[in-house]
Specification:
Ammonium transporter fold; 72% helix; mainly alpha; two-stranded antiparallel sheet; 450 residues; 1% strand
Length: 450
């Protein structure tokens, strides 16, 4: 009995000590295990969750907004400005830009613009988007989203040019022209400015495409308008828009879509995107107000067409500068666009005598050049640039000259080659008189009864 009592006591004492050891070990290892688990999860989170859902949602929305700028925005804007016998041809040219360029961009355009580290153009490393998958990330968004956002820019840029030679270019040569132009002019410029090429190495500011989109299309459009010649009756007949309400609807859609164009170029939903949103609205509003006042004084009547043109001019001008100027600077950018683009459309065009059907050069060429220069002139924080204020203005000026010459020379070369391959790029006189809707597409926009 005594032995069994002692044994119980000893065993009980040993059990208590074992429990105390486990409790102590638990107190020690418990937090360590939790820490290890949390650390492992945080490491896993850092490795996997590099995509920001808010940024991604904003960029998906921005991509859709930029697509809306081409269809239906630009299509309606241009469609209302031409004569009724040519409205379907303009709509079709916008549609085929979305189709043709949309395919070319995925096959090779993106790679030429953003592949490799060349000075003037990219390479074929992303041919058919090779090496990109759903897990690929660009910044804080999926690479696929970045590809499509940039693809929307590529779609609208060639479509902008058609306004300069509207009502006179054959549809087949037009398709070949915009396809070749994308690969030869647009993609190299996109690479030089946004893909780490020469112009970006200079330190030029082009936040959302003043050089890449608007100057390239505007100066190429001027070259194409000269090359193709004037419309039949230009300078002798008063050629009027056939449906200004369509044009106003198109301009309104462009204005709304442009917020995705500019604020989306930040590639994130942050303060810089907010600044770009604010300056885009402010500059455009200022351009409209400035143009209307000038036209009122000059022609005694402010016109709806003038106000719509002014809105696009303001949007174009603020595009390269939207993230580098402040609210006050955006007012100056918009006022300058209203003045310079008005002068280009009403005085320069008649003085020189070129037939830019829908004033692509006067709005996109002149407006884009002004915006690119204004990006340096009104930069909010010039101390942040390596070149300083004067140096930055000089860099912007160099970029403008290079882009203008590059676009004009290569566009003329493309057109010369296409003429050798296809003959006359214009419809014949009878087809021009009848209208491109019937001669190129065998359709009419409006029935005879209407």
């Amino acid at each position: 009995m005594v032995f069994s009592t002692k044994m119980k006591y000893v065993l009980s004492s040993i059990a208590q000590r074992i429990r105390r050891c486990f409790v102590f070990t638990g107190l020690l290892l418990g937090p360590l295990s939790v820490f290890a688990q949390e650390t492992g999860e945080s490491i896993k989170t850092a490795a996997v969750e590099t995509v920001n859902s808010g940024d991604t949602a904003w960029m998906l929305t921005s991509s859709a907004l930029v697509m809306m700028m081409t269809l239906p925005g630009l299509a309606l804007f241009y469609g209302g400005l031409v004569r009724s016998k040519n409205v379907l041809s303009v709509l079709m040219q916008c549609l085929i830009s979305a189709g043709l360029i949309g395919v070319l961009w995925v096959i090779v355009g993106y790679s030429l613009a953003f592949g490799g580290e060349g000075k003037f153009f990219g390479n074929f490393q992303y041919f058919l988007l090779e090496g990109i998958n759903p897990d690929s990330v660009s910044g804080s968004i999926p690479t696929y989203v970045f590809v499509m956002f940039q693809g929307m820019f590529a779609i609208i840029t060639p479509a902008l040019m058609l306004g300069a030679f509207a009502e006179r270019m054959r549809f087949g040569p037009y398709m070949v022209f915009i396809g070749v132009w994308l690969l030869v002019v647009y993609c190299p410029l996109a690479h030089m400015v946004w893909g780490g090429g020469m112009i970006s190495q200079w330190g030029a500011i082009d936040f959302a495409g003043g050089l890449v989109v608007h100057m390239s299309s505007g100066f190429s459009a001027l070259a194409a308008a000269y090359f193709l010649g004037k419309r039949k009756g230009f300078g002798h007949e008063h050629i009027m828009p056939h449906n200004l309400p369509l044009t106003i609807i198109g301009a309104a859609l462009l204005w709304v879509g442009w917020f995705g164009f500019n604020a989306g170029s930040e590639l994130a939903a942050d303060g810089t995107a907010g600044l770009a949103f604010l300056t885009t609205q402010t500059a455009t509003a200022t351009a409209v107000l400035t143009w209307v006042i000038i036209e009122w004084l000059h022609r005694r009547k402010p016109t709806v067409l003038g106000a719509a043109t002014a809105a696009v001019a303001g949007l174009v001008a603020i595009t390269p500068a939207c993230a580098s100027v402040g609210p006050g600077g955006s007012i100056l950018v918009g006022a300058g666009a209203g003045i310079l683009c008005y002068l280009a459309v009403t005085l320069l065009k008649p003085a020189i005598g070129y037939d830019d059907s829908l004033d692509v050069f006067g709005v996109h060429g002149v407006g884009g050049a002004w915006g690119a220069l204004a990006s340096g002139l009104f930069i909010a924080d010039f101390a942040a640039t390596d070149a300083g204020w004067g140096g930055q203005v000089w860099i912007q000026f160099q970029s403008i000259i290079f882009t203008a010459v590059f676009a004009i020379v290569l566009t003329l070369i493309i057109l010369v080659v296409l003429r050798l391959l296809f003959g006359d790029l214009r419809v014949d006189e009878e087809g021009e008189s009848t209208g491109l809707d019937l001669t190129e597409h065998s359709e009419t926009a409006y029935s005879q009864e209407a």
